[in-house]
Amino acid sequence: MKHIGRYRLDRIHGSGAFATVWQGFDTELEITVAVKVLAENWAHQVDVRERFLDEARLLRRLSSDRVVRVYDVGTHDGQPFFVMDFATGGTLADRVDGSLAPDRALDLAAQSARSVQVLHDAGVIHRDIKPSNLLVDIDRDGHERVVVADLGSAKRLAEASGITVTTGTPSYMAPEQALGRGIDERSDIYALGVVTYVLLTGTLPYDISDPIALITRKASDRPGRLPAEHREALNSVLARAMALEPDGRPRSAEELASALDRVAAGEGDIGAASGWPTRVIVALSAGLFVACGAVTWLVVR
To answer: How many angstroms separate the Cα of 59 from the Cα of each of 119, 125, 182?
Structure first.
């Protein structure tokens, strides 16, 4: 059995290009924990190592039950690690098979938006919102709470306008993020719109596998498969959340959460837009995209 100090590493819970998350056990406190360990091949890269530790510091500073909490950090055999609360209910990725009742899907989506709002209130943009980065914690009474995790791509709002290196997951990424333009909270709101659609239907709204497909998407393209219940109101809410232009989206994650609450309550959408917009974003051709080097593309996990 592998150990890091007092932490027993029981099984791999998730892994990516830069780090592995283990389900572990704190032998002193006798509780299940999550232990994130930087990959050995990256451990000696100063910039990667510092970014890894920045994630731990940021999570530690965000004192909220809507964001995964870090309570220990250290180094083992030259590899940095940090220890977090273990979310007992898995991730939203475990629940996107299309079997969720619409009102349950809307509740989880609204909770996700309110958890992301905690980041925004602290001046942080996540940049990689997707079901696998939204954990579900279950308390002793069986109540479920969505918790935001994996801030490895997060940036402070003050730095966001100058970001030209694109990071994230194509299917959940806002167009301005793929284009390497300045981003803000509304980029995360776009991703929350995609998460909401996936929770409701079990499928992605668009077939997006690379940045070219994303930036050439027409605003008139409309995903199908929305459940009959609340369909008209959902069309309106998701049209705004996944608007190609940031100005067309809700002004905050909390505004999106409130709209989803109203839909679940049968009150419809009282948002500024109604139905899917008809404007078409002006897209770069694939040749121009590559030749100009407009975006350095990095797909995280």
So the answer is: 10, 13, 24
